[in-house]
Design goal:
By secondary structure, the protein is an alpha/beta fold. The chain has 2 domains: about 150 residues, 2-Layer Sandwich (Nucleotidyltransferase, domain 5); about 180 residues, Nucleotidyltransferase, domain 5. It contains 15 helices and 14 strands. A hairpin with an 8-residue loop joins strand 13 and strand 14. Helix 10 packs across helix 11 and helix 11 packs across helix 13. The longest helix is centred in the last third of the chain and has 24 residues. The mean pLDDT is about 95.
C-alpha cells in the first residue's frame, strides 16, 4: 500500500510517498520558501536527488509539481497517480470539532474552513492543498486528515483553560489547543525507544523548533502542557510571529497608532518574531550568519529565542514532575548546534549535561548529544510527521 502524505506549512510543502509494507519512503521532498522569489524544490528517491528553483507563488503550484515528479521525469517512482492507495493530510487546527484523525469529506473541508481564523498562516494553504487533492484524485482514493491539535487533547483542564469569563470561553470555544502534536508524539515515542523503556514510564520535554516553534511537556506518553495556545501565535517567538506578549499591547497599538485590529494582527504574525527583532530576516540560518559577523540585532533575536525555549523547558520539567529526556527536533532543532547549546547552557541543575563536541558535529541526524553520565538524555531526533500521518491514515481507513 502506498500512502501519499501532504504536510503543508506556512511557507513549505513537505511530502512523502510511503510504502506501508516496510514503512519506507520511496520518495520524499520539500518545496521551500513558497511565496518568495527564491522558492525551490528538493525531491529525493531512494537512488537520486533533484534540487532546482521553481516558481511557487502558492501551495497549489508546489503540489502540482510534486505530482509530476512522482510519475514522470527521469526517475518516476510510480507509473500513475492511481498507484496511490491513501492520501494523508496534516491539518494544524481542528478547533473543538476534531479530536482525532478523520476521513476527508466536503463537510470536513467546510468545518476546517470554519476555523481558518484560528490558524490563518497554516490552515488556508493546507485547505487549498486538500481541495487540490480532491480535484486531482478520484473519490475512490480515500483521503484522511490528521490534526496537530489531537495529541494535546490529553491536557488537564488546568492546563488548557484560559482565565477569561466562562461564558465567552464556552460560547467561542476559547481554550488552549496546542500544535505540532504529530511531531511531539513521534519524537517522544522515538526517545522512549532509544532509552529502552515504554513511553508510558517516561517524562519527556520535546522542542519542535522551526519557522513555527513549540515546546511540550509529556508525562507517560500524554501531553500535559504545551507552549502554543488557542492559536499558533502564542508561546515562543517564531520566524515572523511574536509569540506570547502582554495582552494590552494590541490595544495600545490601536490607541496610540490608530491601527485597525487587522493591521495589528498582521504586525504580530507577519512582521514580528525573529524578523521583527533582527530587522533582517525570519530565517534562522541567515541570522546565525549575520550574528557571526557582528550584527547586534541578529544576535539579540537568537538570544531571545534560546532564552524563551530554556524557560519553557524548565517550566515543563516542573509541570510533569521531572525530566528523563530533552528532545530537539524541527528544522532549527535538528540543524542548529548553536541553539541547542544556548538552550542547554547552565541547565546542569536539571540534570542536563550536553556533550559540546558531539553537539557541534550533529546536524540533521538522530544522535544522543548528552554526556555519557548525564542524568537527562538529550537527543536530536529528526521528526517524521509524515510517517505518523501515514499510520493514522491507514488506521482510519481500516476502521472504515
Amino acid at each position: 500500500m502506498n500512502v501519499l502524505v501532504i504536510n503543508a506549512g506556512s511557507a513549505t510543502l513537505k511530502y512523502q510517498l510511503i510504502n506501508m509494507t516496510n514503512e519506507q519512503a520511496v520518495a520524499r521532498g520539500l518545496c521551500d520558501k513558497i511565496g518568495r522569489e527564491d522558492s525551490s524544490i528538493t525531491h529525493k528517491t531512494q537512488s537520486h536527488t533533484q534540487k532546482y528553483t521553481a516558481s511557487f507563488p502558492t501551495h497549489t503550484e508546489a503540489f502540482l509539481e510534486l505530482c509530476k515528479l512522482l510519475t514522470g521525469g527521469e526517475h518516476p517512482v510510480i507509473a500513475s497517480l492511481g498507484e496511490i492507495s491513501v492520501i494523508g493530510h496534516r491539518a494544524v487546527h481542528g478547533g473543538s470539532r476534531f479530536g482525532e484523525a478523520t476521513l476527508l469529506t466536503e463537510q470536513v473541508l467546510d468545518d476546517i474552513e470554519g476555523v481558518l481564523d484560528m490558524a490563518p498562516l497554516h490552515n488556508p494553504p493546507m485547505l487549498k492543498a486538500m481541495r487540490t487533492c480532491k480535484e486531482i484524485f478520484p473519490d475512490c482514493v480515500p483521503q484522511v486528515v490528521v490534526f496537530d491539535t489531537a495529541f494535546h487533547q490529553t491536557m488537564p483542564e488546568k492546563s488548557y483553560t484560559y482565565p477569561i469569563p466562562s461564558q465567552l470561553r464556552e460560547e467561542l470555544k476559547i481554550r488552549k489547543y496546542g500544535f505540532h502534536g504529530t511531531s511531539h508524539r513521534y519524537v517522544s515515542d522515538k526517545a522512549a525507544e532509544l532509552i529502552g523503556k515504554p513511553v508510558e514510564q517516561l517524562k519527556i520535554v520535546t522542542c519542535h523548533l522551526g519557522n513555527g516553534s513549540t515546546v511540550t511537556g509529556i508525562r507517560y506518553g500524554k501531553s500535559i502542557d504545551t507552549s502554543s495556545g488557542f492559536s499558533t501565535y502564542d508561546g515562543l517567538l517564531m520566524g515572523t510571529r511574536s509569540g506570547g506578549i502582554d495582552p494590552y499591547i494590541p490595544t495600545y497599538l490601536q490607541t496610540r497608532k490608530g491601527y485597525t485590529p487587522e493591521q495589528v494582527e498582521d504586525i504580530l504574525i507577519r512582521e514580528s518574531g525573529l524578523l521583527g527583532v533582527s530587522e533582517l530576516s525570519s530565517d534562522h540560518r541567515e541570522l546565525e550568519e549575520a550574528a557571526a559577523k557582528g550584527n547586534r540585532k541578529a544576535q539579540l533575536a537568537l538570544d531571545m529565542y534560546a532564552y524563551q525555549i530554556k524557560k519553557f523547558v524548565g517550566a515543563y520539567a516542573v509541570a510533569i514532575g521531572g525530566i528523563d529526556a530533552l528532545v530537539f527536533t524541527g528544522g532549527i532543532g535538528e540543524n542548529s548546534p548553536l541553539t541547542r547549546a544556548d538552550v542547554c547552557n547552565e541547565m546542569e541543575f536539571l540534570g542536563v549535561h550536553l556533550d559540546g563536541e558531539i553537539n557541534s558535529a550533529t546536524k540533521g541526524r538522530l544522535r544522543d548529544i548528552s554526556t555519557h553520565n548525564s542524568p537527562v538524555k538529550v537527543y536530536v531526533i529528526p521528526t517524521n510527521e509524515e510517517l505518523m500521518i501515514a499510520r493514522d491514515a491507514c488506521t482510519v481507513v481500516g476502521r472504515g
